[in-house]
Amino acid sequence: MSKPIIGITSAFVKLSNFSEGVYAHKDYSTALIKAGAIPLILPIAPGSCADQYMELCDGFLLSGGCDVNPKFFDQDPMPGCGLFDTERDQMEFQLVRQSIKKGKPVFGICRGLQVMNVALGGTLIQDIASELDHPIQHVQKVSRKEVSHRVRLEKDTYLFQILGEQETVMVNSLHHQSIDRLGDGLRAAAFSADGIIEAVDVKENGLIGVQWHPESMTAGGSDMMLGLFKYFVTRCKEMKQANSEV
Ligand SMILES: [Mn+2]
Q: Do you know which InterPro entries this protein is assigned to (predicted)?
């Protein structure tokens, strides 16, 4: 069977007045290639273009990036809320909701996990450091390939199995927002010591999301985190096969 095509969502970046472009950190494609998939970077384009992305791709990796516009979970921006991109939010919500309908897996990473949660009716903590009483450091100061805090895995989850049935694993952390109330059908699969939801996992519809950056740990040589991408790529193949038999 040919390799599955995974759409990676992207950001719009402006490098200078003469250089504006479509951006997704190289570690996402590196990790997907290592796991046996064909990565395809998708420019932000909600509506009919994103409908075609649905046809084109066997699964989607929602990448990290800016904050989610809090209007999408019925809140005003708090003082600690950062920049957001409403068009990107809309396109990624569309991809999450249509993927569930069409039986295509979605892997949310960092912002991608938050997007997945809001797309399914959940809410976010807009700024962990100012909204929690006793937060740990979730915006690490070391390089993104290095790990900085522990997460405790829920034992009855697929994530627990994928990561080698360890109760706690060390992860990197580059986020200041996180899930507050869980979206419909999502279940928490991992927590940090301050109670932040660090992962969700729903095998039935192929949704998996982590708050850390496994792509950069994979690029840094972590076989455990490469296992997450292999799991996702395998789900993409399985669900493609199942859809073709319908
Ligand atoms: Mn964290």
A: Class_I_gatase-like, Peptidase_C26, PuuD-like
Ligand 1 centroid to Cα of residue 142, in Å, is: 13
Q: How confident is the model at residue 203 (pLDDT cuts 50, 70, 90)?
A: confident
The Cβ of residue 34 has, within 10 Å, a number of other Cβ atoms equal to 16
Residue 176's pLDDT band (cuts 50, 70, 90): very high
CA of 192 from ligand 1 middle (Å) equals 7
- pTM here? 0.96
Domain count, the chain: 1
The CATH number assigned to the domain holding 238 equals 3.40.50.880
Active-site residue, 110 included: yes
Distance CA 168, CA 150 (A): 6
Return d(Cα 190, Cα 196) in angstroms, integer.
8
Determine the Cα–Cα distance for residues 95 and 58; give it in Å rounded to an integer: 12
The C-alpha atoms of residue 22 and residue 157 are separated, in whole angstroms, by: 35
The domain of 41 spans 5-245
